[in-house]
Amino acid sequence: MSDIIDQVTRAGHTVAQRESFLKLAARHWRWLATLAVLVLACCAPFQLAPFRTFQLAMAMIYAIALVGLNLLVGHTGQISLGHGAFFAVGAYTTAVLMDRWDTPYFAALPIAAAVAFVLGFALGVPALRLRGLYLALVTLSIAIFLVPLLKRFETWTGGSMGLTLTKPVAPQWSGLAEDQWLYFLALITTVVCFLLVAGLLRSRVGRAMHAIRDNEVAAEMMGVRTAFYKTLAFAWSAMLAGVAGCVYTWVIAFVSPDSFAVGLSITLLAGLVVGGLGTQWGPLLGGLFVMYVPSFAQDVNQAAPGVIFGLLIIAVMYLAPNGLAGLAGRAARWLEHLLRKGKTNAR
Questions:
Q1: What would the 3-class secondary structure string for the chain be?
Q2: TM segments (predicted)?
Q3: How many other β-carbons are positioned within 10 Å of the β-carbon of residue 346?
Q4: Using alpha carbons only, what angle is made at residue 116 by residues 95 and 268, rounded to the nearest 5 degrees?
Q5: Domain residue spans of the chain
Q6: Which end of the chain has fewer CB atoms < 10 Å from its terminal CB, N or C?
């Protein structure tokens, strides 16, 4: 980065040209950082113990759910406290398909995603009339009544006892252990979901969502169909949560109603805020936070893990109001400022 800045400055380019070069260099650095993360992710299951591999797989599952929640909250400006309900819908759809009808686990994924999409669309239509706290309360109510609803239909859901399944077996040609195979299933699904959302946000649909988030009235006056895009945002967000629930069922091989209590929805929203609303890396950082911080809090004090978890959230919000992704962005800008200052002093 410093070499590029030096070359551009010596060439005598204008300020606009220098900024253009800097943006291009920053884009290359982002691609290199993404590639480095992927390489590390591919190497991780061969270096870690099976339990640590399982934890990373769970972090990626939460990241899938959070990238959908980020699409709704961070990029469209809506609010949801019931995202765990769609997570449960994907998990139970997969579990019922695999347990009752012996559906192959790969075939269960698009069905779980479709069911969650339809339910999200159905919720998005009445949610058009609601905003702010009213919308938050409606989505929260969905997460609250889901648990007793799952317990009621014992024939299908297994009631309070849940359903126990068989984990996907690694193909012989892969040469992978069971935990490694499940990890790569989670990794591939995560990468595909992130790429799909990134492409969506760069399209006209993404620009419409950002316009609704910034100023809904102005967006409608400019011809943006706010009702249509807000409903689609709910549906796509629910679909990605359903995909996360499906992969969760593959990895855990067990579902029970108590695993999807209202606390899951609140934890997911807190993880997204901590990771960084409306950012590219926020869902991934939030997934790591949701997975590892409760475990860390449990190790510190088994009597009060919730207190430690809450204090850590407060500390992160105080130190990084824009989330961990925003903190990383500030660090990058600070480093760039130091490089510029160093080059100026050297001349």
A1: CHHHHHHHHHCCCCHHHHHHHHHHHHHHHHHHHHHHHHHHHHHHHHHCCHHHHHHHHHHHHHHHHHHHHHHHHCCCCCCCCCHHHHHHHHHHHHHHHHHHCCCCHHHHHHHHHHHHHHHHHHHHHHHCCCCHHHHHHHHHHHHHHHHHHHHHCHHHHCHHHCEECCCCCCCHHHCCCHHHHHHHHHHHHHHHHHHHHHHHHHCHHHHHHHHHHHCHHHHHHCCCCHHHHHHHHHHHHHHHHHHHHHHHHHHHCEECHHHHCHHHHHHHHHHHHHHCCCCCCHHHHHHHHHHHHHHHHHHHCCCCHHHHHHHHHHHHHHHCCCHHHHHHHHHHHHHHHHHHHHHHHHC
A2: 29-48, 54-73, 80-98, 104-125, 132-150, 181-201, 231-255, 261-291, 303-320
A3: 7
A4: 90
A5: 1-47, 48-346
A6: C
Q: In this model, does residue 343 exceed pLDDT 60?
A: no
Of 86, 85, 82, 87, residue with least CA distance to 138: 82
- Please tell me the pTM assigned to this model: 0.88
Q: What one-letter code names the amino acid at 224?
A: V
pLDDT digits (tens, 9 = 90+) for 143-159: 898 888 998 888 888 88
- Architecture per CATH, domain 48-346, reads as Orthogonal Bundle (1.10)
What's the whole-number mean pLDDT along residues 74-85? 90
Burial class (CB in 10 A: 0-12, 13-18, 19+), 321: exposed
pLDDT of residue 62: 97
For tokens 């702010």, the residue is 132
| 24-45 core/surface letters (b: 16 or more CB in 10 A; e: else) | ebeeeeeeeeeeeeeeebeebb
- How many alpha carbons fall within 13 Å on the CB side of residue 301? 8
Three-point CA angle 32, 26, 190, nearest 5°: 45
Q: Bridge-partner residues for 164, per DSSP?
A: 254
Residue 16 above 70 pLDDT? no
Residue type, 167: K
Identity of the amino acid at 46:
F
Q: How far apart are alpha carbons 204 and 226 in whole angstroms?
A: 13
Phi, psi of 138 (to 5 degrees): -65, -45
